[in-house]
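Quick sanity check, Multicopper oxidase:
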Amino acid sequence: MKMYKLPKFEHILTAFTVGLIISSFLPSSIVSVLAQSNSKVKQEDHPKSHEIEIGVAELSSDRIAYKMNNYLIRDLINNNTVDITSKYEDKPTIPGPTIVVNEGDKVKITLVNEMGWGYPSVHTHGAHYKITSDGTLKDLNKVSDQAASPTNPYTYEWDAANGTAGSWPFHDHTIGRNALGKSMDGLETVGLFSSIIINPSSDRIPALVDGIPKNVSTSDIDKDFILFVNDDVIWGSEIDYTKGGKHSNLGVNPTLTTNKDSIVRFNIQSIGNDFHNFTIDGIKWLKPGTNKVINSHVIGPLANHVFTIKADRNGTYYDNSEINLLGGMKGNFSVISLNSTVGDNREQAKI
């Protein structure tokens, strides 16, 4: 019988030791950069502090929007810090910049008023916070005015505590429509809204894969689509984890594009006063909290609806109410085969 010579134990031990020595001499910043170069690689499960500066700026057509100014993620165990500002667009967008955290993380947002007038704020759903971070006026919270003036930024602190996993809207709650900004309604309907996605500490989320309910890892997600259903249009953005977690604004009633067989998560939220029946023709997903397969869902003001699927076919998404459908509240979901040239053209158009 032929004998195979196994490597000696001391050789294995030597290789392992050399690897440890080399890694110990690498600066922690380099290790962080290597890990961040591929956002789909699961990071250490340490709690993080997300230290963010968001600006508020005016757009044309009486629109106002949030914009990302600075975003640092600090590891609360080893204090390593990574700057991910460059993953975001450097201009105000509608929806505003999406924040992605894990259960157990902390968020500190400093809001800067770059308009020179008014008192905008940030009021979140889902995450926990103290009353001083409610993002409302003293008339409502009975404690303090929590908005950014033209000369004084305001800082909010949120806690993505256990049980807060989900996709939640945040929006203005103070600027109002008068010069003093004393309306408590806020101006989310003109553009001051965005989303915080809180991934579960378990790292598992339900998904419909090849027609079968499964639990997938958050690191399996190739794209997050964020859609805000307004009273008359649908605003969209995306996070592409196959491109290092790049955030892109998609505009109004956008075409959502992904590669065939990719795992995508839809984060549907509503802004305004109407109820909407969000539908995707030809696409099915799991009703949250169940294994029931659906292809439409009614969503009310400032509510949310999140689902994850394996992309295997094209579809059209829309608000399935006659008046809104006639008004053009619809867009395409385009699934591209890997051997298609459409993806290359789309990439070139972004350069």
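Posting the structure with no commentary besides this: The chain has two domains: 42-201, 203-351.
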